Input
Amino acid sequence: MKMKDDIKNAREWYYYLHEDGNLISTNPLVLDAEPKYFESIFAKKVWKLNMNDRGSLWSFVLEALANGAKIESVQQLAILWRLTIEDSLEMIRHVEPNKEQTLGLNILIVKIFHMELAEYWDMIAIKAEEM
Output
């Protein structure tokens, strides 16, 4: 599949949150052809991602959830990018989530990791002690 290969090999990539809650992937070349591409009533929020920076991917996923992205859309990306419970510990160690990202993290814990918040934070505390 060419599009997935393009994404895999790209350093930068755009995603936007469509008003219907879907996350739409957009090749940066689209902006070369149409600079006002994201100036649409359908695009609620736009992110430019560094595909080689896991912090960028995590920030995007958390912000997308906080802004109303469909759980299924985020879940697909979490699987694709291997954003796991274990990886979230690394994310927390390296990225200090802002209020929006914290809201998204809470949604991720409950809706995607299928855990209670207290259970997740207890597990994170134990894993942190082990390190």
The radius of gyration is 16 Å.
